[in-house]
């Protein structure tokens, strides 16, 4: 019974993590303005770690072109 509970718990954790992992531009662009702000990117740790490198024009947002280089 314990192994079933552990298995179900792992499945639940994996599912919830997948639900919050946003990896496409349109999903991350919550306000639909055509750019991903740092606040919008904050839901994706990997994207946040690369944000300043990807933001080549240093305007504080990622365009589709900049995001495509991720």
TrEMBL record:
PROSITE patterns: EF_HAND_1, EF_HAND_2. It comes from the Bacteria. The keyword Flavoprotein does not apply. Residues 1-21 form the signal peptide. InterPro entries: EF-hand-dom_pair (IPR011992), EF_Hand_1_Ca_BS (IPR018247), EF_hand_dom (IPR002048). Keywords: Signal. It comes from Pseudoalteromonas carrageenovora IAM 12662. Residues 42-70 form the EF-hand domain. The keyword Flavoprotein does not apply. Pfam families: EF-hand_1 (PF00036), EF-hand_5 (PF13202). This is EF-hand domain-containing protein.
